[in-house]
Amino acid sequence: MRRLALDAFTIGLMVMVLLASLLPATGQAALVLGDVTTLAIGLLFFLHGAKLSREALVAGLTHWRLHLLVLSATFVMFPLMGLAIEPLALKLLTPELTMGILFLCVLPSTVQSSIAFTALARGNVAAAVCSATASNFLGIFLTPLLVGTLVLQGAQSAGGSGLAQIWKIVEQLLLPFLAGQLLRPWIGAFIDRHKPVLRYVDQGSILLVVYMAFSESVNEGLWQHISGTALVVLSVLSCVMLAIALGLSVWTSRRLGFSKEDEITIVFCGSKKSLASGVPMAKVLFAPSALGMIILPLMLFHQIQLMVCAVLAQKWARRAEEPQEAPAPAASSRSVP
């Protein structure tokens, strides 16, 4: 069922891109949809704050070495990887797509899929909840700073100085998030009971932002600047980055002596990037005309990471079940006189 839900969302993303390509929003409709999109992003982060369980965070906070490693992978390893890939990307891709790769590298980890894959693979779920949530919360501050340092060079900024950009993040993302967290004692039970329904609000907000982003870019001639070769190059680079992230996460966690359960958590939380946070942040940080190209690498990487991590999670889940099943025949044979 989980795979079907992910596939449905992916199909929705492709439909939004196709719809924006054939019927991009223009004129007054674009202005109205822009305001609706801003409200949808605020609602998205309000729900993120309201869904955040403080009890789960407290339960995982003591595992500071694991959290530090996950945050280092997310906000140090990936940005360094992006800088290393940048010269090659500039030779093979447009500056906007290269900027999209760098933006992908400074985003926080996913929350829902990281926790889901950790649970499926029999990892440390409490630590995954804490790490993924901390990554997203810190990403509200760290991602704009890293974007200003590594990605933006003036021309593609959505709005002036670094302080102006940080305020936009605070106003559109952090304040709704904090409001949801403050209201959780009163609305938390309702939110928890209706998580399956509210998930569609999350996904609907992202789909709306994707439609608006590609509408703006299509109006600026998006598909005249992207070739099939560029899409193949983006896919290959995404696979390379994900393979490096997964390999380094496994190697580092084993070198530092983490348990298998913690290793699984580190791999899934430290190697993934959040579409749910990335698309709204891109809308705040980048000029509308470049938005479609900038989020395209993120959309490709998002789907690749889901498919690869689903295979890994199922593999680890089967391995976790084997020791429990293996002793059964031996025990049976010993009982025979």
TrEMBL record:
The keyword Cell inner membrane belongs to this UniProt entry's keyword annotation: no
What Gene Ontology cellular component terms go with this record?
Answer: plasma membrane
Can you tell me where the transmembrane regions are?
6-23, 30-48, 68-85, 97-120, 126-152, 173-191, 226-251, 290-313
Q: Which domain of life is it from?
A: Bacteria
Q: Does the keyword Transmembrane apply?
A: yes
Keywords for the protein's UniProt record, in alphabetical order: Membrane, Transmembrane, Transmembrane helix
Q: What is this protein called?
A: Bile acid:sodium symporter
Q: Which organism was this protein described from?
A: Massilia litorea
